[in-house]
Amino acid sequence: MEGLFKQKLLDLRHPRPAVTFGAALLGDTSWWVPETEVVPSALGASVGEVSERSHVLESLERFALEKTREEHSPVLKIPGGELRVHTEAAPNLVDPYGSVAELRASLRLDPRLTELVLARKTPGKVQVLFVSERFRPWDDVVGESKSGLESELIAGFPVRTAELFGRMIAAMKLTQEEVLLFPVEDAAEVDYTPEIFSLAAFFRPLIVVTLGAKATARVLKSTDRLSLVHGQFFARQITDSHTVQVVPLFHPSIIETNQNMKKTAWADMQKIMKLLKKLP
Questions:
Q1: Are residues 108 and 66 in the same domain?
Q2: Do 26 and 6 reside in the same domain of the chain?
Q3: DSSP character string of 114-166
C-alpha cells in the first residue's frame, strides 16, 4: 500500500486526461460509482465524482495518519518530497498531571461521578475518550444499577440510550478499559473543556470522539455544523509529545430516535475502527 500510495502521488504530477481523480490516485477500486449512474449537479461536478473524491481523500488521510503514527513523526517522506500532517494545538498545551490523584483533585465534576467513570482507567490502555454534552445528576444515576461499561454510560445518558451506546462501543470492538466518558458541561452549564484536555494529556488516548453539536463546538472551538464535520479527523496537539485525533459523531440520542442515522453512524465508527486497527 505504501509503494502504491507514493507512486500515485507522483503520478499526479503527470495527469492523464482520460482517467478520473480516483483512478489517478489509487487505480481501479470497487467503490467507484459507474459513469452510467452519475447525476449532474448544479455546480458542474457529478454526485459520483464528489463521492469518489470524498472516499479517496478519507483513505489518504487515514493512511497518512497511520504511517506518521508508526514512524513517530508528522512528516511522511515520498520520492521527490514529503507530506506533513498538520496539527492544531490547543490554546495552551497541557502539562500532564503526575498521578491520577492529582488529576482527580483538579476535576470540577461531582467526585462520585468522577470515581464512577475513572475507576477502571489507566494511561496507555484508554484508546478513545468520548465527550458527551453533559452528565446526569448523581441522584439520578445512583438508583439505576448496571454492570460493566453500562454502569459508566448511565452517567451521561438515560438507561435506554446508554444501552444503545454500549452496543455501539461493543460493535467497535472496544473494551471497558479502552474507553472513557466525560462531559463537556454540567447541568449549570459550567464548561469542562479544560478538563477534557487534561484527561487527554494524562490518559493519552488516540482519539477523542465528541458526541453531539455542543461537545463538538466546545472541543474543536468551531461553529461548523455537525452535519458537515461528522466522521472527519481533526488533529489536536495536547502536549509537546502527544497529539489526538478529534472525531465528531452524532449524539446517541439522535441515532436512537432516527433509524436513518444508524447507517451514517456506523460508517463514521468504522473510520475510527480502521485508525485503531480494529478492522482488517
A1: no
A2: yes
A3: HHHHHTT--TTT--EEEEES-PPPHHHHHTS---TTHHHHTTTS-HHHHHHHH
- Looking at the domain assignment, is residue 280 inside a domain? no
* 132 part of a folded domain: yes
| Dihedral angle computed from the Cα positions of residues 88, 90, 91 and 93, in that order, rounded to the nearest 10 degrees | -120
Same domain membership, residue 111 and residue 59: no
For 186, residues 6+ apart whose C-beta sits below 8 A from its C-beta are 108, 109, 134, 135, 192
Instruction: Quick: pLDDT tens for 29-67.
Output: 333 333 333 333 333 444 455 455 555 555 565 566 555
Percent of residues, the chain, with pLDDT higher than 90: 55
Q: Report the distance separating Cα 231 and Cα 245, nearest Å.
A: 11
Taking the CA atoms of the chain, what radius of gyration do you get in angstroms? Answer: 21
Q: pLDDT digits over 5-27, tens only?
A: 555 545 544 444 444 433 333 34
This prediction's pTM:
0.70
DSSP-assigned beta bridge partners for residue 208 = 129, 246
**Dist. CA 99–CA 112, nearest whole Å:** 19
In angstroms, how far is the first alpha carbon of the chain from the final one? 13
Tens-place pLDDT, residues 184-199: 998 778 899 999 999 9
- Of 226, 213, 231, residue with least CA distance to 132: 213
Indicate if the pLDDT at residue 105 is higher than 50.
yes
Looking up cell 472525531 gives: 247
Domain that holds residue 15: 2-85
- Residue 15 has φ and ψ, to the nearest 5°, of -65, 145
d(CA 237, CA 158): 33
